[in-house]
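Recap from last week: sequence in, structure out.
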Amino acid sequence: MARSTPERSASGTAGGAAASSGEAAVPASGPEVLIKNIGSDTLVNLALAWAEAYMAAHPEVHISVTGGGSGTGIAALINRTILLANASRAMSPEEIVSARAAGFEPVQHTVALDAIAVVVNRANPVDRLTLRQISDIYTGRIRRWSEVGGEERPIVLLSRESNSGTYVYFIERVIRLGRKDNKNLPSPETLLMPSSEGISNEVRQNPNAIGYDGLGYVTPDQKVLAVAAEEGGPYVRPEAATVLDGSYPIARPLYMYTAGEPQGAISAYLSWILGPGQGLIQGLGFVPLAGGKK
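Predicted structure tokens:
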């Protein structure tokens, strides 16, 4: 399903200003509340949909949503310029230490589920790979499509940039195969793309390209590969059912982080996201939480 470029923001009508500490602000001119929500490009379209729906029902609340990557949102949370960050990966131990040094305990809220789809040009005859093969492709051990059942062509590697939570998760789960002792990194020949749209455009135009992205950003003009967790295992396509039953091997939770336990307007907003807001998720290509609030 096609999605717009994530580097954009949405907010309610003018009114209210964020406090310097990042707290939801209540301006002297009225009861309006402003919530700044920054971070994951994977989450940004879903966060925008949530914000727009919530503001329609709560006109006194104005929610500003901006992408920029999970690292950007987490840094803003640590710097106390916001109290609600979006992330498509868990905070690192170093980030948690920095948050504590800034005077608060970060609290993780799982708000949706996602699959990372591995995509190629639709003219590419390859339609399935194992995790090991994908790891070997991205580390440069496999360099030609003929080595994995395709044509005698070079493989062009596409990746998100390092501030992306999707990039971090892909390295940990796929390139390093989930092993803590594995320190592999993408090949230096990997082309780093600033957005989901950049990966989509290159895959669409380049028959040699391979890329990856959150399932909600995959467009119909890309081929989505089935992935097996191990050689001889089942090849599984990314979709809601295979994320929920755990059979698709590159699935993950999506998070919002708060500086301490959420209070006031932010607490009410998160409660809505984990309740009625779950109804918006599947229409945007993501997966709602099973059983409601997590």
